Every structure is written in structure tokens, then in C-alpha cells.
Amino acid sequence: MSISSPVLQSLIAGRWVGSTAARGLHSAVNGRLVAQTHAEEIDFGESLDFARRQALPSLLALDYQQRAALLKALATYLMERKEALYAISAHTGATRADSWIDIEGGIGTLFAYASMGRRELPSSNVVHEGPATPLGKQGQFMGTHVLVPRRGVAVHINAFNFPMWGMLEKFAPSFVAGMPCIVKPATATSYVAEACVRLIEESGLLPAGALQLVIGASGDLLDRLLETDVVTFTGSADTAAQLRVNANLVRRSVPFNAEADSLNCAILAPDVQPGDPEFDLFVKEVHREMSAKAGQKCTAIRRAIVPASLVDAVASALRERLAKTKVGDPAIEGVRMGALASKAQQADVAERLAQLARGNEILFGERDGFAPVGEGVGDGAFFAPTLLLCRDALHNEAVHSVEAFGPVSTLMTYTDFDEALALAAKGRGSLVGSVVTHTPALAAQAVLHAAAFHGRLLVLDREAAPESTGHGSPLPMLKHGGPGRAGGGEELGGIRAVKHYLQRCAVQGSPTMLTAITGEYVRGGAVREEAVHPFRKYFEEIQVGDSLLTHRRTVSEADIVNFGGISGDYFYMHFDEVAAKDTQFGKRIAHGYFVLSAAAGLFVSPAPGPVLANYGLDTLRFVNPVAIGDTIQARLTCKRRIDRGNRPDQPPQGVVAWDVQVTNQHGELVASYDILTLVAKRPQA
């Protein structure tokens, strides 16, 4: 596909808006007109009303599992059409490798949250943050926490450098959480976001209004938000500071999450010498972060902190790499660095570089043979990779506060490791920092001090290098965000990101009531005992609270001896009468895993049936000892159910978690755990 028309359109209230040209958007490679924004104003009242009245009920008619399944289908749909997106992304000046981060990185994040949602969230719209806590002596008044959809709208304001990844990494968790999204991409590269949203809309997979797109200004959108809404922002720290004090957001306490550009650092530890693998890794990492995406990454290395004794060696190695970096039209073979996103960005980086150059040395830059290759590149937004040197970084505030958002990095020297960590902290909060060392003690020292100032820390050495994703790569399963200058926000981080869009509430009541509220059995609540063994039921037939109280079994010495012979576990507590008398138990006791096995023997239904397999154990605790002559009994209760949907690679099934309590003849709990089983669904006629 190509861009649908010279005039980009917004997707508002289920229809495409815009036909009159306004601002022209130009290729970063050759300056040619790529697209134009639309002049029509957007009715954000209509947009929000559509999201609340139509999209929100449609999303909440689905559960976490179902929304995650839709996300997977959407990711598959986009991946099959990625080449069209690569063609459009080239206008931003990105190389194929740069666009891979944006396009397939964004789609990969959809896949990741689809998988995490299916694996970790319930088949409902309530997440129970248990366990429940007794609030009374009899155990009939308890408290717990639940997470529920906020019943609002998520507004995502994104940066220009990753128009797809930035949109999808926010959309994925908010969609799973059940929030309709209004996305406002940065105007300069909004043609990429529009192309992606057109594909999403054409897929027909999402409920109407689940994703709306704003091309151009956000108008009075923030002024119209309610307490249940959420705003997320990616961009400059200055813009974040302006937006977060919007009077309506402050008055209504609307959550505002900011991920801002920061002066990230990489530290070469004092144990590394030229010729060490770590020395080469450091140089390679700094060079990659300068050249990838032409340095337009919020996670790029802006400050490279090195021992004073090694600065010449590091500078020489970096100059050599930079001199070999071919800059120009990404369509030309061999080009490794493209352009900045726009002429405006080119001017801004030049202005910031001039500030950084005052009082510092330029070790490599435009004077060193900078000549972008390709037709018409003179009208493009190319910028020379530039390496500076600051020899007194403790007293030069500019290198810790001025960011040139392009292929610009500053080497700075330190005399001892404490000084290196002090320099790292002068960034006043960063998204990510790297420490390159092969000494565990130095790594531990660095993390202890630097973690307070960074959202993520990469410890890089020769062992991690073959699998390392690199300094500048946010991952769906790890937190992205940082303190202070970096915005103080948090994105991604696995299922944590979904929970950012949910509302936490403390709930108090009886175990029976909490079971009904959470959809998860709470001990002490009412159970349902029937003549049919729970393991004889298909997944659809099992209900939370279905329970079985087993017959009893008295543990004999022969049981202990036989289990020891089978398992090879001859621990003295089980076999040495004399030694066992001197312990806190005063006698021989049964193996904990024998108790576990004996309990399974009590509650398992052995004949073939709907239960397909044991999926694992959670929360196992051996609470009290079981001695020879003690009698045990088990209670098995359905704790929660997770519908895994119908997958082509396996029979229809779900996961059932069973609460197991093993007690002795005095009614005392001796073992407690959850057992997970795969349970087949009823065969279709």
C-alpha cells in the first residue's frame, strides 16, 4: 500500500476526517513532499463521547483473555503487511534496520502482550491481587485487593522518532486492560502512524472506536478528560512539564505518565583495558547508539564515561568506526546511517551541538569528510555523527543538561569509579545506563548507586554479549521509563503495563463474598460438593468453589521407608530416630513430598477423563510435620479457571487452579498449595 492520499486523515468516531491540505510533511531523505496534514478541526467532544458510549462497552463485553486473543490476531495481520510499512517508513530517513525497530518491534510488542495476557490474566475483567488477609479472629472477615478496568479513555501522545513502536507499545497494554485509545502521533512522521492505523481499521478486528487517530494538534482534548481517563506522553522533558500541569488534568487528578528524553550514559569500568572483549563492546555500543536511527532514540548514549587513562584509546577506536559509517539515502546499498526526521530537527540538533561544543573538543564531526550519498540528499535532513570530549565533566553542566537529539555523544573522563558514578548521577535521572565491566563487585557497586537515577541498567561483559539486546533496546517484559529528567513514568515491564491502566481497589467481606467478587476461591468461603468428582467434569462444567473432601490415610513407617527407597531421600529426619529426637520435632517425620504424593493419591480420579495433565504447582508450603501414625486428609477446591481459547495446535482446553489443603487428625493444616491442571472442553457435536 502507499499513503492513501496526499492529505492525511484522522480516524475520529468511526470515520476518517480530513480533506483540506494544511501543513506539508517532507521526506527526510530528499525534501520531497510526502503528505500533508488536514486543516479540518477535530471535535474532541464527539471523539470522547464515541469512545465512552460505543467503544468502552464493546471492550468490556470481552475479558482479558479475549482481548489478548484479538491483539494476537491484529499482530499477525500487520506482520503479513509489514513491507508496505517499510516503504513508507523510508521517508523518515530510517534505514531498514532502523525501521525494523519501529515496525517489527512494535508488532512484536503486540505479540508479547497477547502472550502475556493469555498466560497471566484471568478469563474475566477482575484481577485478584491476593492472597486475602484475615481481618478477624474467626477468619470470616477478610480483605484483599482487586484491579478492574478504569472505564475511561487512554490518550497517547507520541514522539516523532518511532511512530509505530511508540504507538503500539502504549496501545497493546491499554487495549488488553479494556481502555479505548486516542492516539496523537508527532506530526513530522504521522504519515507512518496513519498508514498503520489504516491497516488496523481495514483488518476489522477491533471494536469500533477502540483506536482513534489524531493528525495535527490535540486542541482541547486534555481539557475534556475525566477522572477515569489516562494520559501517556513521550517526548521532551520541557513539553512533558507543560502538559502535566494542564488545569483540567490537575483538578481531576487524571493520571499522567511521561517518558522523556534523557542524557543516558555508558560507563567503561576501570578494570577494562584495550584488547579486552569489554573494551571492544563499549566502543561498539557507543557507536551503535550514535548511528542507529541517526541517534534519534530516547535511550541513546549521550554521555560515554571512561577512565582518563583510556580516553585517547577510546576516542581513537570510536573515530575509526565513525569514519567507516556510510551516511545517506537508506535505499543505497551500504548506507548504515540515514537522516534526521525533519529539517526542523536538523536545525535543533545543530543549535544544541553548538551549546555542547563551548568549552569542549570536537573529536569527530562534519569536518571529517561528511558527505551523504544519494540523489537530492542536499535537501535532506542529514547530520554528521559528532563525538565530543569533556575533560572536566564534574564542573561542566552543559554536558549533563543539554541534549542534541541526534548522532551526538560526549566522551567524559573520570579518575576513580566513585567519580564515574557521580557523573552518571548528574544526568538527574535517565531512562537507561550501561556499565561495561567483567568484575562482579564493580557491577554490584554500580547498580547499588546508579539504580536510584536510572529506569534500566545494562551490565555488559563478554558472557552477556552474545545474547545482549543492547543498551538502547526497551523490551516488553522490562520496565521502560526513568526518574527525574526521564519523566518519572513507567511503561512496559510485562503485565505491570496492563495494571497501569487498571484501578486498584481494596475489598472487605466474608470469604464467600470475596470469592464471588474476585472470581477466585478464598479459603473459608462456601464450597460446592457434588456426587460427581471434580476431575470428571469438562472445563465448561467446573465452577469456582467446586470441592472434594477426600477419605483419610494413616501414615505408617513402611510409607516412609518405601518413599525413601523410591526417591533416594534418606535424610536423617525421616530415618534416624536418635538424631530426630534432638530436633524441634522430637521424632521422625514423613517426607514433605510423600505428603504431597499421598494427597494426590487421595484426590486424583485415576480413570481417563477431562483432566489432561498436571500443569504445575504454586504456593507450596509444608506447614506442620506429619509423623508416623498421623492421619491425613485433603480438600480439593476449584480456585480459578482460565479459558485458553481454541488453538489450532492443541485440543480445546482450559487451565484450572485447584486449592489443596492437607490436614491431620487434629484438623491442623500440614500442607498447602495450588495445583494447576489442563482440562479438556466438552467435545463439539
TrEMBL record:
Boundaries of every MaoC-like domain copy: 544-644
Q: Where is the Aldehyde dehydrogenase domain?
A: 38-446
The record, for SUPFAM superfamilies, names:
ALDH-like, Thioesterase/thiol ester dehydrase-isomerase
Q: Which InterPro entries match?
A: Ald_DH/histidinol_DH, Ald_DH_C, Ald_DH_N, Aldehyde_DH_dom, HotDog_dom_sf, MaoC-like_dom, PaaN-DH
Concerning Pfam families, the annotation shows: Aldedh, MaoC_dehydratas
Gene Ontology MF terms: oxidoreductase activity, acting on the aldehyde or oxo group of donors, NAD or NADP as acceptor
Protein name according to UniProt: Phenylacetic acid degradation protein paaN
